[in-house]
Amino acid sequence: MRFGTLNDIETNKKTVLLRVDFNSPIDPASNIILDDKRFREHAPTVRNLSDSKLIIATHQSRPLKKDFTTLKAHAERLERLIGRPVEYIDDIFGRCARDAVKRMECGDVLMLENLRFNAEENIKMSPEDGASTHLARGLSSMADFYVNDAFGTAHRSQPTIVGIPLAMKSVAGTLMEKEVSCLSRVFSDSPKPVTFVLGGTKVDDSLSVAKNVLECKTADKILIVGVVANVFLTAKGINIGDPSYDLIKKLGYSDEVSKAAEILSKFKDRVVLPEYVAVRNSDGEREEVSVDKIPKKSPVLDLGIDSVASFCDILQNSGTVVFNGPAGLFEESMFSTGTFELLKASAEADFSVVGGGHTAVVVESLGINEKFSHISTGGGACIEFLTGKMLPAISALEKSWELYREKCS
Ligand SMILES: Nc1ncnc2c1ncn2[C@@H]1O[C@H](COP(=O)(O)OP(=O)(O)O)[C@@H](O)[C@H]1O
Ligand SMILES: O=C(OP(=O)(O)O)[C@H](O)COP(=O)(O)O
Predict the structure, then answer these.
(1) How far from the centroid of its chain's Cα atoms is residue 93's Cα?
(2) Which ligand is nearest to the Cα of residue 206, counting in written order?
(3) CA-wise closest residue to 149 among 397, 372, 385, 409
(4) Does domain 188-386 correspond to CATH entry 3.40.50.1260?
(5) For 317-330, how does the pLDDT look when each residue is reduced to its tens digit (9 = 90+)?
(6) Where does it primarily localize (predicted)?
(7) Could you state, in order of their start, the residue ranges of all structural domains in the chain?
(8) Counting beta carbons within 10 angstroms of the beta carbon of residue 282, is it exposed (0 to 12), middle (13 to 18) or buried (19 or more)?
(9) Residue of 224, 329, 331, 366 to mutate, ligand 1, most atoms within 8 A of C-beta
(10) Which of 84, 256, 308, 346 is deepest in the core (most CB within 10 A)?
(11) Backbone angles phi, psi at 281, to 5 degrees
(12) What is the ipTM of this complex?
């Protein structure tokens, strides 16, 4: 890695500004945090910084969304998790925040207000512009070191992600380091053969990942499931029925059909499509059909049992599995078989990685999370990483390391 980590800085008695991504599902009516996975994943970094005066900064949601809220509940949740007091302050870099920082002693933890309450944090900008914002200048003046642990936000070019690292000595936190090293391993020394499972509804992202990992020979095989499979089947000239085709149109992915066709023509032998699917029939029940017999009026909602078996066979013979996006409408138990069975088979691989919010939730609900080598905290960030793009947060940390390396110890 070409950026600094916590091992490269001496934080004892120093003031550290830590950027995390505590953006979590919240019940807007009660403000209760519904899933604290990201808190649990950032906890090691917080613990590693227990000898410092620790200022924590995060965002929650976006302006105008129902779960765009203050961070009092986030501070309380973190406090419970780490077993140490976390003071919440309803300010970001104004006088109240600065005074609170001045009062801090070693071991204290302070949580600032939602970063996206500041307009500048909601704007995509260059690192140079980011560094010159009031937000980046105000925050960087409060601490000796900046630690970016927010992998979930690593694909955003916003002031705290790309600007602050230009303005001060910055390193990656424990979670950022783990995400980058685990996801990078997919591209380098992962056990062979490497199989990707691409499903869910983000067809454009999945096609970019497929193209990248097939072209650079990262993936030996790609198993296509979910709505992504319906696009590929259409590209192959198969009639997937009106409801499934209407969903593709509604999601705005009609243009992706020709891109899927291009991938199929180039990499036919390495892209595996379902031969059998499950539809909801006119009685509202699950019905198994082969793909050349999909009824005109029935939506395709899962992988068929025979294809589940053949896909599991491929997964069981894979050294590495990267799984991103469910195989069907798993929220309905009738259509959860494909997702559940494929995930269980993937968990047995020597090296197994899961990306995507829905997929990670299923893995936890099946109680097989410990069996996976890595479950990414990033949705968009993980998928952009797998498309082979350099994430803005990582390039900013690398630049910071170049600029400040000498001054870090
Ligand atoms: N064939 C299908 N038809 C309709 N919805 C599907 C189908 N396959 C998967 N889905 C839906 O995809 C959603 C998750 O997709 P996505 O957001 O891309 O996953 P992730 O959050 O893991 O990246 C789930 O709500 C699931 O019900
Ligand atoms: O949850 C996040 O992204 P994700 O939903 O793609 O995992 C991050 O906190 C980034 O949030 P954003 O997509 O509002 O910039």
Answers:
(1) 28
(2) 1
(3) 397
(4) yes
(5) 999 999 999 999 99
(6) cytoplasm
(7) 6-176+390-407, 188-386
(8) exposed
(9) 329
(10) 346
(11) -85, 180
(12) 0.94
